[in-house]
Amino acid sequence: MPELPEVETVRRGLEPSLLGRRIKDVILRRPDLRSAFPKNFRQEISGQKVMKLERRGKYILAVLENGEGFGLHLGMSGRIKIQELSRDQDFGLHDHVIFVMEDGVKIIFNDPRRFGQLFKIGPHWDSEKPFAKMGPEPLGKNFLKTGFGVKLKNKKAPIKTALLDQNIVAGVGNIYACEALFDAGISPLKKAGAVSSTQTEKLVRAIQSVLNKAIKVGGSTLRDHRKTNGEMGYFQHYFSVYDREGKACPGCDCNIAKTGGIRRVVQAGRSTFYCPRKQK
DNA sequence: CTACCATCCTGGTTGC
DNA sequence: TGCAACCAGGATGGTA
Questions:
Q1: How is domain A4-132 classified at the architecture level of CATH?
Q2: Cα separation of A80 and A110, whole Å?
Q3: Which of A56, A58, A190, A278 is flagged as catalytic?
Q4: Which residue in A161, A170, A247, A245 sits closest to A211, CA to CA?
Q5: pLDDT per residue of chain A (280 residues) written in tens, 0 to 9
Q6: Is pTM beyond 0.90 here?
Q7: CATH 1.10.8.50 at A144-274, yes or no
Q8: A33 CA, C14 C1': Å apart
């Protein structure tokens, strides 16, 4: 489900219940998701207070008072639900992990497809496993100057495929890659290395703009994504190209019967949507 | 190094 | 209506 805007929406939704609060207990209702849960996870996390709640790419990181912490990734279908003051001990289908807070609030990690992750992090998580080589934060201050342009220049893959590479830019997934390329007027088929510096600057602005707009409305809900209070995001209503094959491109007033409208192709096994007239 | 592929899963949608 | 095939927002490890 989640790309950067959805993950950021979830992180913000978690803040009131998690940040500065103490975790009383962790209930693991199965031994693993994508990978096995860390040994002694429950013992090591229980009793700790959450000092920081951060996001890096599509990951949410909780730093605890002992300097250790944990990370989670929502995979394709992960959701976080917050249950206030419920004595109900019956959990729903696919409610795999439950953080029970000191004040009785339950934070539930639900994930039907089980592509999600839950893992431990150390004080220097930033230089560890998935984060060490991860690309820059697109909403960070110096996104363009943090090597994004250079990384693109060295890529032979199409620009769309490059945008999905978390080592080039963190947090962009299929939806926002398509939308950003449309906004920037760049064909997804163009080789990353052939994108000019002017186009790269335009792309940077387009990525930031589309991500910020999506965050503002709670992300995109296609099927699974929900805010922590259960509400849907509604950026899907603003899609220009994603999931709009054959429909009119906003900005093209051409005859759809002749042009076929928005086109869908498959790149690196993923659907790409674009307007061949607006994106060169 | 890069590109491509299969794989981990369930569930919603599509097409016969 | 029933059912099977296909598709999905991601990451990774293997192979060529």
A1: Alpha-Beta Barrel (3.20)
A2: 6
A3: A58
A4: A170
A5: 599 999 999 999 999 999 999 999 999 999 999 999 999 999 999 999 999 999 999 999 999 999 999 999 999 999 999 998 776 778 888 999 999 999 999 999 999 999 999 999 999 999 888 898 899 999 998 898 888 988 898 888 999 999 999 999 999 999 999 999 999 999 999 999 999 999 999 999 999 999 999 999 999 998 888 999 999 999 999 999 999 998 999 878 777 777 778 999 989 889 999 999 999 9
A6: yes
A7: yes
A8: 21
